[in-house]
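Subject: Predicted fold for LALA0S13e00584g1_1, 306 residues

User T.R. writes:
Posting the sequence so we have a shared reference for the thread.
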Amino acid sequence: MGSQLLTGDLVLCKVGSFAPWPAVVFPQRFLRKDVYRRRRPDCVAVCFFNDETYYWDKPGRLRPLSQTLVDEFLERAATNTAEDPVLVEAYEEARNFKSLHEFLMQRLEEENRMQDWHENADKDTKVEAGEDPFEGRSTKSKTVRKSSEPEQAAIAPSSRSRSRVVASSDSGSATIGAPTTKSGPKSEPNVSNRRLARLDHAKRIEISLLLRRKLQTNLVQRNTPPGPDELKESRKLLAKIAENMASMPQFFDLDALRQSKLHKLLKVIANDENLEEFHGQCTEILEEWKDSISQLRKEKLKSQET
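User M.O. replies:
I've generated the structure tokens; pasting them so everyone works from the same file.
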């Protein structure tokens, strides 16, 4: 799909090893702030059906999704019980897609972001499809609209926007679900500012195996992109690993890594471009484990020689 791509177009977006997923090319001015911050000049934003996430991708990687393709998929899925039911529902939502305006308004309501509509849309107008998908936000036009409103009305959205930015920066992902609200989970304090929660050294192998299974299920062995709950839990699990790196006796020792192969999973995560938010954590942990990993590599080579 090339330069003719426009907002409101239905497309199939391929993310990593996941199945191509139905999505809508989304107007950038209505993106959440945490998503917009990760804007790429050569990419457009898409919003997935039956999923809370957004994604930046190059137009050439997106496939047009016609109603014919939607109907054909749903016909096949009706006779294939192994098809992912979440993906099937996404196609059903794509089949029921009426207009970009209706889709956008529903998404803003679900994310409790109707204020964004008032800030970025002209009064009493509908958002029409067919706009340039590369067009970003216009701070100038937003300033003009705000200046015509009472001073108190202009201040309130600003404070709410800041609270959303703080919540999203804690999550650190452009493809997470709805932003955290006041009633939602609070941000975690930095590891360095809280007392380390030591794991039971006697159970280090069992715990290492458990950590691997949970991270693998949350981030790697999936038919759909990880959701907000999986991303949040994975951050906590990696933080738990980091907290126990300096424990004495060593928690993640040769036996723990040899049996759990946790280091191999972290390498997979660190090399997956769709899990970029975890690259830093995984790389730091692997750097700390480099001597043990080197020793395990030598053991493997030696066993192959005998």
